[in-house]
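Subject: complex prediction, re-run

Hi both,

The earlier run crashed halfway through, so I resubmitted it with identical inputs.
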Amino acid sequence: MIKGLYSAFSAMESAWRYQDVLANNIANSDTAGYKREFATQQPFADVLLSQQAPVPAPISARIQQVVGQIGTGTFIADFATDFGSGIVRETGNELDIASENGFFQVEGADGTVFATRDGRFGRDAAGDMVTSQGYYVLDENGQHINLPQAAVSISADGAIIDQGGEIARLAVVDYSPTQLTRAGEAYFTASGEGQPPVGGPGLRQGFLEGSNSNLVEEMTSLLAVQRTYQANQAVLSKLDGTLDQAAGELGRL
Amino acid sequence: MPTILGAAASGMAHNQNKLDVIGHNVANVNSYAFKKFRALHEGLAQPQVDPDAGRLGVAETTRDLIFSQAATQVTENPLHFAIEDDSFLRVQDPSGRIVYTRFGGLEADQDGNISAFHGRPLEPPIQMPPGWILPAVDQFGSVSAVDETGVRQDLGQVTLAKFRNPQALEILGDGMYADTANTGEITVGTAGVEGFAALRPGALEGSNVDIAEEFTNMIVAQRAYTACAKTFSVGDEMLALATKITQ
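This time it finished cleanly. Structure:
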């Protein structure tokens, strides 16, 4: 019975953690380059159920006898990121770029390099190509990119071209999912070197990749998890009532 | 506060902001030279994010000014012109500071001042001597008028400016913008020379708001708001259940 209490509690606990992830996915259904998270649930390792030998038995016989196994509920094993593409929409803005394969490289204020699929770029006061937060967009040599005042065109392979020819080439790097760690909603930090994307970056100028979280899917999961939570709460509540009887009413007899 | 409530509230706030922006854009679908906004959620980078620190949704809504060229509308007014590249007309605000606008509808008052929208003087100011008539602007921004003897004479030329980063312009209302530390180098020039496109006289630039696009965004934002509100109430119900484990 006590084990049942913990099973129900662990299911409720993992439901909460799952809801947090789902709520975040829902809140970010409009975040450019957002990659949704999902949780993988696992049962706790089974524990052995044992029986004490009857009291008159000699001490040596009082070792526990295993009579079977029992599970003690579930927990969230891991949060994983779904790296599927978000919806790519045409925006017509000069420096909105959607990448088909691979991640842009941007340099944060403290020099940290992030990988991102958020392709909303612009110019800063000095004409450098920056993200909407002012992070520098890097070229294939890891350098900042200085843009001319006039509009530029960006080819599918990342070349930035003005009237005078190619100015720079955007760094677009592909990673295996295990190399990337989440650093915020649309940014990742990479461990180890990435590879050039197979089949080229496939950049599209004037397009923007949205969020890959799908409201319908997330809401469905949210409601399902809510019911799981509710059911386990009911179980916990019942067990509590049973314990109450055991402790309170049995003693009164 | 549990993360689910924080994330849902942040999503609601963002979609509210987005609907505000859409409302502003739609209200200005017929405003000459209006430039629309785009509201997007910004996924902030956190270098040392702790996977268990909680997920609080998104930090902020960014508003980007979209300076795409709008369709030109012919007005046949000789003092109107449309700017057909990414430059801005230089005018003065009431305190004499130079501000910038895309709106090329000049007007002449009874004192002969040729001014921009709401009587703002041009930079440099252009004035028509008393008795002269029929002021007009040409494709190079030269303002001319007919003197008493019936000869058309030049009065001056409007000047234009370009910015390295027009996104950073400060919005003053009335279609006026002011430069900031982030707008970068300002290139001043006149229409038709040195990288400045010629003006289109007798016309005004329309609004770059696309009603179909705004309505699509509105539907999406409204539904996303509903989803976030529902998420919030699910979180609330779960909290209520947690308190009811034991009576």
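The helical segments of chain A are 2-27, 215-249.

- K.
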